[in-house]
Amino acid sequence: MQRAAPIELVIFDCDGVLVDSEPIANRVLAASLSEIGLATTMASSMRDYMGRSWTACVEIFEQRLGRPLPPAFEPSFWERLDAALRAELRPVPGIHEALARIAAPTCVASSGRIDKMRVTLGQTGLWERFEGRIFTAADVARAKPFPDLFLHAASRMGAAPARCTVVEDSPRGVEAGVAAGMRVLGYAARNDADALAAAGAEIFTDMRELPERIYRGLRPV
């Protein structure tokens, strides 16, 4: 009789999966870009930049502008974003309950900056849960959609990629998990479920379902 392969690690993206930050961040980014002449809506910001590292985003901004960003852009954006997150940020609904019911080891692998995650995870009561197990795009040569970050996280946590489950909410993150040889669950409460599925994710829309989803349909050994 076949038995299910044990899950050695659950890897969480941060923004949009643990903390409900994407609408806030993309609203602030759209406004900031529009102010310097790059007309952007919150919807187009989420489509074009969500799931990318900040370095990759800056390259796109400058390419579209046809010039370097103004020197004050980055400090002004991060200051405005920090203020908005402190005022408005909430955890993704159901994430605390879900984490309490997941027996496997967990970690975070995010394209976000570590200083930003100290704010977002700290404000939502999640920093202590993941402290020491948070990996970022700064840790690897290539950010999502390449598999490097997820493979780095698995290696640091001592887990085999084939026995890792990734929880993502962006097509680029899903692509990275699939390329790493990991099972990917796509959280589609706010995002395009079809795009996540096309990238290779198994779709779910309620974070409270996550523990059951993790253990459902495991590959046999």
Write up what this structure looks like.
Strands 3-2-1-4-5-6 form a six-stranded parallel sheet. Helix content is 46%, strand content 11%. The chain has two domains: 9-20 and 90-215, Rossmann fold (3-Layer(aba) Sandwich); 22-88, DNA polymerase, domain 1. The protein is built from eleven helices and six strands. The protein is an alpha/beta fold and 221 residues long. It has helices at 22-35, 42-49, 54-65, 73-88, 95-100, 114-123, 127-130, 148-157, 171-179, 193-199, 210-215, and strands at residues 9-12, 106-110, 134-136, 164-168, 183-187, 202-204. Helix 1 (22-35) crosses helix 2 (42-49), helix 1 (22-35) runs antiparallel to helix 4 (73-88) and helix 9 runs parallel beside helix 10.
